[in-house]
Write a structure and sequence with these properties.
This protein is of the alpha/beta class and about 220 residues long. The chain folds into two domains: about 5-95 and about 205-215, Rossmann fold; about 95-205, Rossmann fold, CATH 3.40.50. The protein is built from eleven helices and six strands. It has helices at about 5-15, 40-45, 50-65, 80-85, 95-105, 115-120, 125-130, 140-155, 165-175, 185-195, 205-215; strands spanning about 70, 90, 110-115, 135, 180-185, 200. It is globular. The model has no long low-confidence stretch (mean pLDDT about 95).
Length: about 220
């Protein structure tokens, strides 16, 4: 869970909250645990297991009184079932919430997914979307590597990607097709915003932020 992506989720929750002063906002606890190993590296077989630190964070948040937990990382949801066993706090599932949102608000059945290699390889979007009668189109290997490179540039606060590069990759798969694009890594909406690219994007970070605000009214 990158610090920039974490702050982006926090910002979106704030902006989506109907508040007229500080006291109207939600009480939010953030555990910016930078000890969590890279999720994609582990899924691809070359990194440390991130579950211990992810579970540690979930337990810590529960002990601090969290009623529910949001994970600002799409790839991390590959470990969702392992994490939720260790906490009584409700853990929101970003990808499932995205599928539910699309069923309720969109007529499209197919979506182009931009994500990490870990997300592609684990099939977490494909498996959950299939449950809702939705399908995912993935880019080819070279474009997956390009997207991965962009994501890690954002993680290191480098935005040396052009809007032409970004949009050309999308057009390669969606031109002349009614196919919305899912920015399935929390760094990608940040990059798109920085580049000034405005399209019919599906932003799971915003969807989970809306869910956080919605749930706050139940507690």
């Amino acid at each position: 869970m990158g610090p920039l992506a974490t702050s982006e989720l926090f910002r979106k929750i704030i902006e989506l909250t109907n508040a007229s002063n500080d006291n109207d906002h939600l009480h939010i606890v953030i555990d910016n645990n930078t000890e969590i190993p890279d999720r994609t590296e582990y899924i691809l077989g070359s990194g440390e297991d991130p579950r211990i630190e992810m579970i540690r964070s979930a337990v810590k948040l529960e002990m601090m009184g969290a009623d529910y937990i949001a994970i600002p990382c799409n790839t991390a949801h590959y470990f969702y079932d392992d994490i939720k066993k260790y906490t009584k706090s409700q853990i929101l599932h970003m990808i499932r919430e995205t599928a539910i949102y699309l069923i309720k608000n969109r007529k499209n059945k197919e979506y182009f997914l931009m994500a990490t290699r870990g997300t592609y390889e684990s099939k977490i979007y494909e498996n959950i979307f299939n449950e809702y009668g939705l399908s995912i189109l993935e880019p080819d290997y070279s474009d997956k590597m390009a997207i991965m490179d962009w994501i890690y540039r954002v993680k290191s606060s480098k935005f040396d990607v052009t809007s032409l590069e970004f949009e050309s990759l999308i057009d390669k798969y969606t031109k002349d097709r009614d196919m919305p694009v899912i920015l399935g890594c929390t760094e990608l909406p940040i990059l798109a915003g920085h580049l000034g690219v405005k399209r019919d994007f599906i932003d799971p970070t915003e969807i989970i932020a809306r869910k956080c605000v919605e749930l706050a009214n139940k507690y």
